[in-house]
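Morning, I've got a small favour to ask if you have a moment. I owe you a coffee for this, so here goes:

…
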Amino acid sequence: MHYIELIFQGIFGENVVLALFLGLCPFLAQSKRVDSAIGLSGAVITVMSIATPFNWLVWNFLLKPQAISPEMDLSFMRFIVFIATIAALVHILEKLIKRFSPPLYQQLGIYLPLITVNCAVLGTSLFTVEREHSFIESAIFATSSAIGWAVACIILATVRHKIRASNVPENLRGAGIAFILTGLMAMAFSAFNGLV
């Protein structure tokens, strides 16, 4: 039951973009088109699902106080090492997408390498360390958080696609309506808090 709560929390209750407001930049930028939102969502799910458990291993076996020896404390290097891990994974993913899906690579553009500095990916790694999750819990939380980010991004892209034909006031077109829609989605997702 605990794992189900963790999944529900990652996707809905503590949605990384709608409740914790992490990863808003690529979320808003890539939600203009449904196909690019789906592509970036797949990349975010892949990176977050691999990077967070890997960072958990690095933390618990290298950086945690007294992990290597009783006198050694490398916890101050947590941010640098986590970002380096994420950057390496994103670089590998970028090369794979460029090789096997050039159209997706062109659509994602600068936002694919920006996953490296996507604070949602780093934030999830830091949350699992702060909350002292086990390895399995960190993997479940990371994957469900990534799915939550993807669900929110794809929903916003779909709604933005539908409202293109609507009569949105000129001052609200573009980023204005995107922020309003994001706020409404955040309120809707917050209704899931405490259900499990």
Notes: The chain has one domain: 15-190. Residues 34-63 form the longest helix (30 residues). The chain has a mean pLDDT of 88.
